[in-house]
Protein 1
Amino acid sequence: MRYRGLICVGRILKSYGAKGEVVVVSETEYPETLVEYKYFYIRYKGEQKKLDVETAKKSRRRFIFKFKDIETLEKAKAIEGHYLFVKREDLIETDDEGFYVFDLEGLTAFDEKGKKVGILETVMKRKPYDYFIILNEEGREIILPAIKEYIKKIDFENEKIILNIPEGL
């Protein structure tokens, strides 16, 4: 999810305790990086608001954050359900082979024979895996599971992705 050039990295689930802490879940492929951010942006009452991180710690599969200026249970409850965003340039870098799923959006998709399939419009996050939504030249959506056996090559330099597309799609 994007908002005014910002990238969604988490969501505030609920308040935690009486001192303004909140429980956060990661919305990225690299959840462990969430505690490394020094600040986030949220969309609060129609405005973009910056939240500076005071403390952050991992708690099972979730995270507990304390933000500066959020010092009461009431203030923590006011931001429940909000998404946490960061600027693209502030994203924690992945390893050499890693990338963020949204980096795939906009790539031209080709089949293994070199035939253009369409433009990879978005990656839809679902369980048990994500799906590529590819818009072909006729305006039809092609939905393909984003799994390794269908991805043959990702070429960011030439802005293309080569896919093994099953017959019938």
Protein 2
Amino acid sequence: MSLYMCEFELVNDGDCVLCWPFWPGVEGGTQGENLDDAVEMAADWLREMALDCEMRGASVPKLPLGNEPRQGGRVVTMVVEASLSDIPAVTAKEAAGLLGVSRARVSQLCKAGHLESWTVGRTRMVSLESVRLRLAEERRAGRPRAGQSKARGDGEVSGARRRTSPGKAVAC
């Protein structure tokens, strides 16, 4: 279990409270209906971003502290605990059984970004949520035609998704 810390600017927009993280390279954030809800959403956002970095084997970037408000709000510091063991997951072998495919096919789906996965020692773990999403997709029998891709226009790959959408703020 690791601790992650990030500052957020909370801005009361009248209808909701917007939460803008001081996270390099991220232009969006999250929001809540009121201050309590916004703080909870910011904590969830930070936890999901940290878990996403851990799943990819990447380090959480060094996040700046002591930030000044940029949009007239107030800056708060959030600290969360997160660990890959918090994510409901199955082994690649179990995922293959659930999906009705071979372990090699699960490996292909993971490498292509259609399933969220990470390794623990020598064991590949697959998020149960990504397996459920894959099962829910409508697929035709056979291989896709040459040149067809499951990629969507928003940069996400069909079947793989974050448990939240930390990169975008939703308007109130």
Protein 3
Amino acid sequence: MHDDLRLFEFLILEGAQAGLSWDTILKKRENYHRGFAGFDPAKVARFGARELGALMRNPGVVRNRLKIAAAISNAKAFLAAQREFGSFDRYIWRFVGGRPRQNRRRAMKQVPASTPESDAMSRDLKKRGFRFVGSTICYAFMQAVGMVNDHLVTCFRHRQLSRPSLRVPRLSSLEIRGGPGPGRRSAASANIAGRARGRASR
């Protein structure tokens, strides 16, 4: 994923997901889209007390003041990174050398909660003023946007994503995280049974 608006979307959603299930956030995704101006960082960065108050009264989003305030301040930091690097995409993909990390996991227990790359990303994001960007959240973000391929080798998506020349069909955010084959569900939980229930409910 290299589109800045999509990257900003996942940055907001991963921060909102902290401490919650990914299924909860998925169900609220459209509400987030409306509440956060279509995930346009330029618009979100201009949010003030009125917009923050409206979001706090919105049952369609996680009404956590710290998370909502962080999303607004993260939009400002996001725009600063765009100005410095030309795009957020160019900035964030540096942490994997510009190419997806192709892992060969054979069991869910081999999927880590964080890596040295996510540690480095977290540290740098925090220095730039981002919040709710701990290493575990960063690694879930990396998985969600395709910076790392943590699909198990038994999953058909692993083979697809391991071949850069292949045009991979666009998938939903849930499928990006794991799809029909096993994969990480979220920053907080890698419970494969929970993933199966989530897929069945879609």
